[in-house]
Structure formats: C-alpha cells, structure tokens
Amino acid sequence: MMIGTDSHTPNAGGLGMIAIGVGGADACDVMAGLPWELKFPKLIGVRLTGKLSGWASAKDVILKVAGILTVKGGTGAIVEYFGEGARSLSATGKGTICNMGAEIGATTSIFGYDEKSEAYLRGTERGDIADMANAIKEHLTGDEEVYANAEQYFDQIIDINLSELEPHINGPFTPDLAWPLSKFAAAVKENNWPAKLEVGLIGSCTNSSYEDISRAASLAEQAVAKQLTAKSEYTITPGSEQVRFTVERDGFLDVFGKMGGVVLANACGPCIGQWARHGAEKQEKNSIITSFNRNFAKRADGNPNTHSFVASPEIVTAMAIAGDLTFNPMTDTLTNDKGEQVKLDEPSGLELPTKGFAVEDAGYQAPAEDGSQVEVVVDPKSDRLQLLDPFQPWEGTDLEGLKLLIKAKGKCTTDHISMAGPWLRFRGHLDNISNNMLIGAVNFFNEETNKVKNQLTGEYGEVPAVQRQYKQHGVGTIVVGDENYGEGSSREHAAMEPRFLGVRAILVKSFARIHETNLKKQGMLALTFANPADYDLIQEDDTIAIKGLESFAPGKPLTVVLTHADGSSDEITVNHTYNAGQIEWFKAGSALNLIKSSVAK
C-alpha cells in the first residue's frame, strides 16, 4: 500500500496498487514512523463487460461512474473495477479511471493486476517487477469466486458495457453532471450555456499518457489533412518530461503545432489556474473544455462565469477543431477551409510507444543521503517562505462566545476555501496565503462571495480581513457549511489557514474524507449536524458555544448552543468521528504538536 499527499495518488490503482491520497500531516506521521489510520471502507464494484471502440475511451468510464455516484457517492468506499472489460483496458487507461476516482469521493480505486499491467511495466523498463508480479499474479487480483458472485461481496455493484459506452461530457461547475455526447448539444441549448468554445485543453495528471496524446494527435493530423483550421485555442499539458520528450520524438507535438496547438510546461498548469488566461479578468461568460479532473467555478482562471466541461482528450480535440459545444464528432460534419463538408474519422492511437519511452533529464533530484546536517534557513523578510510556529493547545474548557464567520451555501471545495492559481506562490508563507481563506465560498445570507458581516463593527468586509479582526480581539469563530464540504484537492492550506487565523470549528452537513482528516490534524473541531436541517437554524448574528469538550470522547456527540441577536436560543446536537488518538491531536493543538511532545519524551 502507498499513501501520497495528492488527491490523485490513486492513479497507481491502474497498476493494481492500493494507493490512497492523504493530507501532508498524515504523510508526516508515516515518515515519523507513526501508524496511519483509516476507517474501514465499504466496497463498490464496477463490473465492466465488452470492449471500447470508436470514440469511447477509458475517461468515459469514470465520467459515467461520476454521473451515477455523484461527487460524494464513493465517500468511505474503495471502488474496484473488474470483469472482461477491465482486462481489455490499457494500464494508463485504468490509471485515468482511478485518478479521477477522487471526484466521487472514493478512498481509492483499483484494478487487478493483468496482462496490460505487465505490458506497461515492461514498456517502462521495469521487467524485473513484472517478473515478480507474474510469480504471484493470482494474489494480485480478486478471486474468481468473488467476481462470479459479486453481489455477495460488494456493498454496491455498477454494471457498464464498454461496447455500448458513449463518450461523455461532464459539467459545468461540477465533475458529476454527466451528459452522453448524443444529449449534450441539447443540454447546451436548453441551459443557455455558451456554445462557442474558447479553449480546449488536454493533458494534466489525468490524461497525458502516450495513448491519450497519440489518439488526440490522430485527430489533429486529420484536421491538417482535411484542411480544417481549429476554431478554438488548443493547449497540451504533458504530465511528465518523459511523456513530453517521447511524444516530441515521435512527432506528435509537431502535429499539434500544425493545428495551432500550444504546448505548456509539464505541470498542473491550467488545471489549477496556472496559465495565462488572457481576458479572464473581464469576468465574461464563456466555455472551455478540458481532459482534466475538476471543473469547479473559478478553478481554471478565477472567472466565476467560465463554464468548464470535462471530457476525454479525443472529444476535447474534436471540440476545439469545431469551436462549438453543440458539435457531435460521431455524427456531424465540419466546413473546411475550401468550403467543403468533411467528417472526422474515429481516433486511433497506441497504448505504448513502439520505440519505447525516452528522456534526457527526467528532472528528479535525489535528497541528501544524510539529512541530519541539513539546516533550513528562511529570510524573515521573504513573502514566499515563512517558518511555522506551533498552534496553541486546547485551553481545556468548552468554547464560548464564538462568532459566525460565514455560513457557506452549496458547493464549498478546497478551491473555494483556499483558491489555487496565482495564490500558490504563497504556499510556503502561511500568513500571506491566508489572505485567500474562504474568498470563494458563497455567503448564505447575501449570496455573495468574500463578503461577510463583522459582528464587532456591524460592517461587511472580506472574509480574511474580518477573521483577522476577530483574531486580533481574541474572538474565536466558527464556519458553517453544506454537504461534502472540502471536496476536491487535498490542499493542506484549506485546513491550516482557518486554524492559523483563529477559526475554532467547522460545522457542516457532511465532509469530504481528506479535508475532514486535515482539519483534525491541525487541531480543529470538524463537526457535523446530527440533524442536517439544523443548518437552517444558523443566523448571521449568532453567538455560539460548543459544549461537552471537557468529556470529549469517541462516539459521544457534542452540543452547540446558538444565541441569536434577539436573545432567543437554539440547542443542537452535533456529531464527530474523532477516535481517541485524534482527540489527543485536538487537545495538543495539532498532530505535529503531539508528535513533538512524544519525541521529546
């Protein structure tokens, strides 16, 4: 098993590994030799039959599954893909499916080891690992009895026939709004989404495999041969230097260039808003389509009016050529530069390069063999780096006199809590990056973002500024949220910033798994409404108390007392999922504080 500090660590499930995304503090525990804990997950089985063909790709499997399970349907579960259809998918195709399992809230996703796994290992010069895996391959997948009687072993079964699977486009604003390609044009028109496509973007951690690039390049090559000029901007973000070097060697980047494509750096890039999206500051209504994982509002370019859709690299490329979201490449024709009607043929590609992968400098820099003498020196004047001070331990009493910072309405992802894009330059400076705390969350009371009432002054201000005033006056606060609070990236700062600025508790209808754990690690109270309808009792001018902390124990609810501005009050029950060890994190002020004290002893 592997854990990694990215929500897309489960990509490795494509090679049969149990790989789970966690927060940075969880990884610190493991590196310090401490145990790592996880609530035992349920099992969701996705039985794949048939075989992909034509325009359909592995990406369409997870887009369809996201539509079935929604962004929280996989929470607390491992998703296992099996069946003849699973064995027909390439290892990188399986990786794409597992990668995007984060978008359904899954603990992780996995495929069994098979011939495609072996081929990928040998194709990436890991034949020795393939030999070892082959020696125990019957133990690296499920038992035949389990798959033959899947309903007896899985908590839920989803059946998908790959031979009938239609390409999907998901969005906008959420990765689980799934549309079969044949119904997408009608949805665009009915919902008045901008049909003109401004940009098509392929690549990122999810869809930049050799297979993905070669299939997209086959369409770009057609466009050039059939004298079609791409009507939209088109970008390619390689997922690694090895992929970039190999696809350049094999001529694919030249093909994209002839179609007008632009190759970006090997990085997250546009997926987290790090690209030069000219004109985004105008906040104009527009549409883009990507082969990335996420399409939350503002994520790609900071513009809340950018309608972002998710599809396979093949569909993204075809849409970019057409420049029109109502175009269906399976049925429609396009007018070329000569005025002729032409139709795109089905994409084609290779799972692995026939000449093998190649790279001159993969960019890996090994750590020092002996790190004991390494000293970390940070300029105190730096606005990019800042040494952290330990958070204060719990004072040993119930929390009284808390003010409501914000009651977030609807979707509140880690991007809403700690926006990416240009802000990421401050990742090493907690004070500076905290100026983006919750600026994307919608305030329930005024339907606006980054505008909340300061109960000390009665005036409205930006969320971080108001919270800093509370902190300055020693006033603790609470954040209230909706369902699946903290979905999306495993961004540690979404938990660290509220803790740093003096927020004492997050109370929501439900949490996304990684974010809930991140909050616990930072010494925060992560609480859920015992009755979700109690969310409606929270008023803008409330003063709040959290009772029962002196007897804080696993499985024992706490009590929240809401004192309203008119003097009336409500008492509500709130739940938590803290075990005994996690309660010690809270008492110590953070998990790191507890580690430090344990080492000192």
What does this structure look like?
The chain has a 7-stranded mixed β-barrel with strand order 16-19-20-21-24-23-22. By secondary structure, it is of the alpha/beta class. α5 runs antiparallel to α6 and α9 (210-225) packs parallel to α11. 27% of the residues lie in helices and 18% in strands. The two termini are 30 Å apart. The protein is globular, with a radius of gyration of 25 Å. It folds into 3 domains: 2-161, 3-Layer(aba) Sandwich (Aconitase, Domain 2), CATH 3.40.1060.10; 168-342, Aconitase, domain 3; 399-600, Aconitase, domain 4, CATH 3.20.19.10. It has 19 helices and 24 strands.
In short:
The chain is built from 19 helices and 24 strands.
Tally of distinct domains: 3
Strands, total number: 24
Amount of beta strand: 15-25%
Helix fraction bin:
25-40%
Shape: globular
Which value, in Å, is the CA radius of gyration?
25 Å
Q: List the total number of helices.
A: 19
CATH architecture label name of the largest domain: Alpha-Beta Barrel
Q: Structural class of the helices, strands and pairings?
A: alpha/beta
Uncertain segments: none
Reading off the top of the CATH hierarchy, the class of the largest domain is best stated as Alpha Beta
User: For the record, what is the CATH homologous superfamily label of the largest domain?
Assistant: Aconitase, domain 4
Would you give the CATH topology of the largest domain? Aconitase, domain 4
